[in-house]
Write a structure and sequence with these properties.
By secondary structure, the protein is of the alpha+beta class. The chain is 22% helix and 39% strand. The chain has helices at residues 4-14, 73-89, and strands spanning 22-25, 38-43, 48-53, 56-70, 93-94, 99-103, 108-118. Strands 1, 2, 3, 4, 5, 6 and 7 form a seven-stranded mixed sheet that branches.
């Protein structure tokens, strides 16, 4: 069985522009220093069946929110752009919604973007 979350994580981890940040899934590690940059991959739901033929699903759709948190606004924006490039290479596109804010309680800028993509046609082994 394939796992798209792992595929996304590996592609982001392999990107040289993202090498200096912690990349995790579901939530930011509490032990991470407050000023350390992080990227968190959050599934927006389970994989969904899409593209049907002869009454059978032929692919799966995946939706993720990628949360980037840093103590520097421009670093946050640069990392968000690099993340977008990686996601496009994986066949994901950005959806409406997300977050672009500064949280005074954590002293971090957050850029959260939602991406949707699908498995290759005839590959629904997710």
């Amino acid at each position: 069985m394939s796992d798209m979350l792992t595929e996304v994580w590996m592609a982001l981890s392999d990107a040289p522009e993202l090498a200096d940040i912690t990349i995790k899934s579901f939530e930011r590690p509490e032990a991470l220093a407050d000023d350390a940059p992080s990227l968190v991959i959050v599934p927006m739901g389970p994989p969904e069946q899409v593209i049907f033929g002869s009454g059978k699903p032929l692919a799966k759709r995946f939706s993720y929110q990628l949360n980037i948190e840093t103590s520097d606004r421009m670093l946050t924006k640069n990392l968000a752009k690099q993340t977008e490039i990686v996601m496009r290479k994986l066949g994901f596109y950005q959806e409406a919604g997300g977050l672009d804010e500064y949280f005074s309680e954590t002293k971090r800028y957050v850029d959260a973007r939602r991406y949707t993509g699908r498995s290759p046609l005839y590959d629904e082994n997710y």
